[in-house]
Amino acid sequence: MRRLEGITQSTLTKQLRELENDGFLHREIYKEILPKVEYSLTEFGESFIPVLQTMMTWSEKYLCPDYVNPYNEITSDIQYNGDPIFPKNRDE
Length: 92
Fold this sequence. Notes:
There is one protein chain. This protein is an alpha+beta fold and 92 residues long. The chain has 2 domains: 9-42, no CATH class; 48-92, no CATH class. It contains 4 helices and 2 strands, in the order αββααα. It has a two-stranded antiparallel ribbon. A hairpin with a 5-residue loop joins β1 (25-30) and β2.
């Protein structure tokens, strides 16, 4: 089991379940001797990546200009053309 610094197992589980219930994540349960669970982004979750990238860029520029993002290596693989993000009605 992976441990994340600064978050309890119960808090992590609660947040993952909320993201799953909201449609951002898919949970795959493997019935093995040692139970294993994997989470992956749904299509809906992947569609939110540009929003998060835009928010991250904005916060780095205006809130923490001296901050070095430790996740740049991870997020650099995500393709986004930089166009502004506008909310879209779910009914459209």
